[in-house]
Amino acid sequence: MSTNKQEEIYKAALKLFAERDYDGTTVPMIAEAAKVGAGTIYRYFESKESLVNSLFQKVVMEFSETIKTDFPNSNEIREQFRHVFYQMVRFAKSNIYALLFIDSHAESYYLNEKSRSVFDGFMNFLVAIIEKGKERGVFSSLPSNALICIVYGAFVSFFKEIQHGKIIETPELIQGIERSCWNAIRID
Amino acid sequence: MSTNKQEEIYKAALKLFAERDYDGTTVPMIAEAAKVGAGTIYRYFESKESLVNSLFQKVVMEFSETIKTDFPNSNEIREQFRHVFYQMVRFAKSNIYALLFIDSHAESYYLNEKSRSVFDGFMNFLVAIIEKGKERGVFSSLPSNALICIVYGAFVSFFKEIQHGKIIETPELIQGIERSCWNAIRID
Amino acid sequence: MSTNKQEEIYKAALKLFAERDYDGTTVPMIAEAAKVGAGTIYRYFESKESLVNSLFQKVVMEFSETIKTDFPNSNEIREQFRHVFYQMVRFAKSNIYALLFIDSHAESYYLNEKSRSVFDGFMNFLVAIIEKGKERGVFSSLPSNALICIVYGAFVSFFKEIQHGKIIETPELIQGIERSCWNAIRID
Amino acid sequence: MSTNKQEEIYKAALKLFAERDYDGTTVPMIAEAAKVGAGTIYRYFESKESLVNSLFQKVVMEFSETIKTDFPNSNEIREQFRHVFYQMVRFAKSNIYALLFIDSHAESYYLNEKSRSVFDGFMNFLVAIIEKGKERGVFSSLPSNALICIVYGAFVSFFKEIQHGKIIETPELIQGIERSCWNAIRID
DNA sequence: AATGAATGAGGATTCATTCAT
DNA sequence: AATGAATGAATCCTCATTCAT
What we know:
The structure is a homotetramer of 188-residue chains.
Chain A: H1 5-20, H2 27-34, H3 38-44, H4 48-68, H5 77-94, H6 96-105, H7 113-135, H8 144-163, H9 171-185
Chain B binds a DNA duplex (21 and 21 nucleotides) through helix 2 and helix 3.
């Protein structure tokens, strides 16, 4: 087959974990969705717990890489913000389950040290951007992680509604949300 | 006894569901935390599923009532927004588990019709406020639920960070967040 | 009921472990034989492994106590030997599975520290008897544990044959075996 | 290659079965120890059960042949006994796992008709020797299989202790054990 | 009303066996 | 011939629920 089984397992698990949470998802469910035998999952992952952790790390790194791709090195904070936001949108649109999975599983009791540090690394990248903006007097002087919360929280919340069919996504709407988020954290 | 058992069960379940999710929480865990026998839970609730649903409805209604309490009937949108925001803060501070529980359990597969409609009713109240503001040209013309997402998403995200000890809450910070959220959705 | 469930589980497990070994015995098999639900076993024992260990310790201690019961304090080695041998017979006859279980499970990879030390304690009691006999010049000067091997090995082997129906036990036969074992290790 | 794969599989299985029992040994364990693929085992043996049976028969026959090799046709029972005993020692020393495997797997539920009859054939050879000795009034008049139990049980028990490092084997010790076993069953 | 021992259906995981390469 | 990835039946174990006390 074209895609290999590990990838199918990742894909199936991602969707199920995003929709039903870790504990609400059974290994047989994943196996069925991935069209593999239940035992096959254990050829690729030591345990269900190791599967979530691998998946979490993989997906956070993909998110991180998406955001870093073509990151503008110019000193234009506004431009950097827009870039980050639209790359988040790109990521969310290409893989909504990944976004929801990351959001609902970060801070979970079954995540291991490495998963947490990968996630922290990702967050630190965002913090760095905010910090630079604050130095330049572009952003509000609130704590950087508070500012990230505002943008990230709003963003995820928005895509959850899209996913549930309660908001129809359009380019103009995205544009409006981007502007709102910018307005939320810039100095006024 | 001073507090009755049903209340203890609700309290224990709320904390556990917020921290470990519905499926990650077992009935014996709840029983132990509530200091009752496992069987006792079934005197008050038909099943675990009926317990989450009851709890969800109860907690959403409390949230809703908190927000509606002393709601300013003046026509000052800015004042109404501030009221709603600070009542959300009051609710979050008095019962952080309730906030996290609502956030992570809304849209879950085990919620029944009634739970969903209670939650929708709550959201509609917020939508109404937004709609009025939009009519007056105070808020951005983005869809109302998108605007709610921004404020609600930012707010919850912020309190999650507080709960995880990553942000220290101060009156000034709350004030700053309120202003950010307002800036996010007002016409600029 | 007169006997409690833990005792029924012990009894069922003992027979099955003796007949089919630890790994050849499944928890449902034990549950069925003990006439309890499979889950009930886990109310009494943490795991299958903890069950074998508990059982092993219990049974070795019973064997040990049987042998020590009415142990003659006289200085007659011949009398002490006869006592030990007949108490072993008594134990084997009252609970053949216990004897076979001890024999086939001692030195197994799943036995824990405590099980091993209980077994060693039992063996040391036998060693002490042999040592005293050797001091008095009654027993062969071979290493004590070698002498024990001869008697114990012969004894267990003999009762295995009885268990398999290949030897019919009679008082005279037991008497003959006791004498043989004595002859095996005494000075000639 | 110098040794063929079937031989490697036999060797690996023998050690593992002796150390961990049939059910405690997995086919992949055997494959790894034999340095072959798991599937390869099924080229040589129909199933795991057929492997134990083949192995059991092979090993019992080797034991049997070892004992019969150079069997003294003289009428000296003492000499015959010594021969058998020392050949058992030779076998045990050359392949301790074989001895332990035979001992712990005889009478197991997964042995088939043929395995049982091969084992019985072996035992009958020993019985014949004993019977002859009894006719001549050299051995005790106890049942022949009881006498075999004494010698065989003592012998195996002794080599188990050697295997577990609790007894150090020396020529003098072996000599002493042989004499003990003889004393155990001869007329006194 | 309250309990917690008991249950068995269902979960995570293992493993004998197959089969495409 | 040899492999080892793949499978699913069978393990061990958990947990929602019941019920005798």
